[in-house]
What does this fold into?
Amino acid sequence: MTSTLTLAAAFIAGITGSMHCLVMCGGIAGALGMRARTLGQSAPLAFVHSLLYQLGRLGSYALAGALVGAFGQTTEALLQWLPIAQVLRVMSGILLFTIGVQLALQLRLLQSLERLGAHLWRRIAPLAQHTTQHGMIGTLLLGMIWGWLPCGLIYSMLLLGALGGSAAQGSLIMLAFGLGTVPAMLSSSLLASQFTRIMNLRKMRIGAGLLMMALGSWTMWFAFHHH
It folds into this structure.
């Protein structure tokens, strides 16, 4: 079974990585929030649409986690893959640590990934015009598409998901991570300017960065001390 510690780490990564998510997806969340208000026409209905975006995104994360978990389980059955597992954990830790440095120092170390995500979203965004006629189903589908945008933080979590041991456990790891990001993404879609202002406070940024660096360091340490 996936350890409680691993699930907790994934959830914490989602919470502390929310600022990175806002850099990557804050504009998307804000745009979808505006669309939700247009579709909903009232605050309660707009909230339902925003929630559906998040459910769609979490569904995509869970599916991706299941796929990498199944792949990891198959690979483990075919190979004596402890060295490979160690390499994957170290890579995941390095990504988490890099995201922490990026947050704390306001660097753009993963700028190429962020540019790729923005480029893909520009291609996907026109789909929003075609989903408006499908109401809540269209909202859910657009949220699912959002979940497949490239992101260094997601990639690091997928590496952990591949080590989960099964499709179900990989899915749980990604779901725990996704749940950690929901408050930031949901708030930014409904209260974009206010939430961004709070998260841009220097103490918040540095604190989140240090937590991410600690989590990355723990992941790398775990790679060499857990057999």
Notes: The chain is about 85% helix and 0% strand. The radius of gyration is 18 Å. The chain has one domain: 4-225.
